[in-house]
Specification:
By secondary structure, this protein is α+β, with helices and mostly antiparallel strands. Strands 1-4-5-6-3 form a 5-stranded antiparallel sheet, covered by helices on one side. A 3-stranded antiparallel sheet has the order 2-7-8. This is Acyl-CoA thioesterase. Keywords: Hydrolase. Pfam families: 4HBT_2. It comes from Alcaligenes aquatilis.
Length: 140
Amino acid sequence: MHVFERRITVEWGDCDEAGIVFYPNYFYWFDCTYQAWLRQAGLSQRVLRQEYDAVTPLVDVGANFRAPVTYDREIRVCVHVTQWLERRFKLDYQVFNMDGVLVATGHEWRAWARVLPEGRLKGAAIADGFRQRLEGSRAV
C-alpha cells in the first residue's frame, strides 16, 4: 500500500471564532493532498485531460473529527487508495498533529469520467496505467 503525505501549517483564516480549524477546511486539505499526489506522479488535472481525456470527480466524501487543531499548528495529511473498482476508487485520509495524535480521518470516492466533446462527463473504466502511475509516486 502506497501512502502519500503532505504537511500543512494551519493559518488564522483556517479557524473559526473558537480558534479551531473550521471543518470544511479538512475537505479542502483532502482535495489539495490528492492533487499534490497527482502532480508528484506526473498526473495533474491537465495531464489527466490531455493524456486520458478524463477527470476524477468526487462522488462521496466523509470525515470524522477526533481532536481540535488550532492556528499555527502543523499537521500531516496522509492518503492512500483503499479500494479500486472498475470505474471508481476510494481514498482514505488520516490527519495527524505533529505530536503524532490522530486528529481526523476522512474518505473520498472518486469516479473516472471521460470528458465528452460537448464538455459533459461520462463514467468510464479507469484507464490502464493510472493506478500504477499514482501508486508508483513517492511522498513529498
